[in-house]
Amino acid sequence: MTDNIKFIFKVLIKVPVMIVALYLVFNAFAFGLTYFKLLGLSYVVMQTAVENNYIPPLELETLSSYLDDIADTGVITEAAIVVEDVNDASIKPATERRQYGSPVTVGVSANYKFIMPLTPKEQLVNPGEGFEGMDKSKSFSGYADDATLESRRQAIEDRKNNINMIYTVPGLKYYPDLN
Amino acid sequence: MSIKTIFKVLLGTIVILVVLSLTVEIFNISTTGLQINQISRLAGKQACELFAQETYKQYDDGGNMGGTVNMYDIYDANGNMYVPGKFYDSMSPYDIYNEIYNSLEFRQWLNNGEIIKGNWYNLNLMKKAVNEPHSLYIELKDDGSNIAEYTEASMARMLRETMMTPLNIGVPYLDKKLVNKMFMWNLTQLMSNCKGDSILLDEDTGNRYVAFRGFKVFADSAYITDLEYKTFDLDNPSERLNFHSITNIDPDKIEYEYDKNLEDTLGISQEERNKVCLVGVKYAIPITYEGITPIKQVFNYVWNKEVEGMNDGAGRDIYRQWNEHIENLESGGLGGNLGGPTDGVLPVPGKLIYYVIR
Fold first, then answer.
1. HSE (side-chain half, CA atoms, 13 Å) at A51
2. In chain B, which residue ranges form alpha helices assigned H by DSSP?
3. pLDDT value at position B2?
4. Is B267 left (phi over 0), alpha (psi -120 to 50) or beta?
5. Can you give the pTM of this predicted structure?
6. Cβ B194–A103 below 8 Å, yes or no?
7. How far does the CA of residue B190 sit from the closest CA of chain A (Å)?
């Protein structure tokens, strides 16, 4: 094998590696940025709950509005202020007022969409098959059309990788009008 | 692949893993450290608020005190009580009032130079009621010659009988023991997410702690180290500046309506409200760092795997381990505990101030 052919193969191998690496760097950066924004907001939500024993409607509106601004980036979906504890039905929703010391579950939840290219096999009609001529024991039904590829990309994006920053904290405000 | 390459790869992998672990640990300490500081301040602030709300004065249907006198006890993961929820020792509002406002701590507070500086009329009456209870019961002479003394004694008695407190007249007095109990309870609940599962036993020391994102927080040993009272005379320009910088309240915007009647009848100058007392709450929380990556286990393993005989046959005679020395997180106070002996072990110690502006 001459040096030129060696060089061509080296370049060929580097291209997909670089593409994947760049995607990873992009995702790391986008995820980090999003994570810290949501972390900051979740802390404010938690503090609001501690200081009021619940999330008052006006505060909820303000916090939701801020969350909408953060979520308007294209890399996260289903961003929401968490006001219910799905694991513990004994804890009232955080939108209801309660007395000092009562637990309240609040937080922020979002679905970060990892942006990654489809692998060559994922671009086939049947990703379980092999490539034509590569393995005689496997069949090859051709490449998938654009609509199928798009739905597969969407399915990967929608894989649940939720960012859940949920706290159960005590409400630390005394309301004289509550028992 | 040569042996040299294999060793290079092995060493490279170890270095990368250690560097990554340390990076994660540093990142975690930075973010969680700030959170612990904030949470502890929140616990302290809300403890002051709860004490100042004097919930023990609220009666239930049975004539007993109501409010939040008895919170629920907090239990650890093994079902043992970690922090009690009972803040007050007594069950009667009047007993509780006496416990707080007839105590040595309260008497000492009344003689604090900063409190004397305020010279608040009603507080002086309270002082009289505490220090000279026998002088509160006097008869008004027929000729009315002791009217001033009689009025003062009657008012002091009334303040006592109606369970008036310095807080009610705008002077922040905090009972250290009670605020400490509330602080511990708040802190434990905040750190443990209201779940006893994260309150664990430290096998080495036998102490229990709240596991909080790689930190061990000994919430049951948290304590208020100092209540720092300071009275500001808002008529004094330099004190006005200090007051503004500490509270962010512009004294120019605080306006009082002059009440000539009060001055004529009781000799109370309106200007006594120009003296504002602040209390800076300093606290300490014993904490240590355990980590969230396996780096601790790796270090402990490596340090204690020296080959016997390599060190002139001496072998390993000292057991070394990851340092889990417990240090105090110190924060709060009028100046955020800056300039203190250690300035705390976590970054950004903050102020914790309580005050009442009338």
1. 13
2. 3-52, 93-101, 104-110, 113-118, 121-131, 147-161, 176-191, 237-247, 260-266, 295-303
3. 84
4. left
5. 0.81
6. yes
7. 5
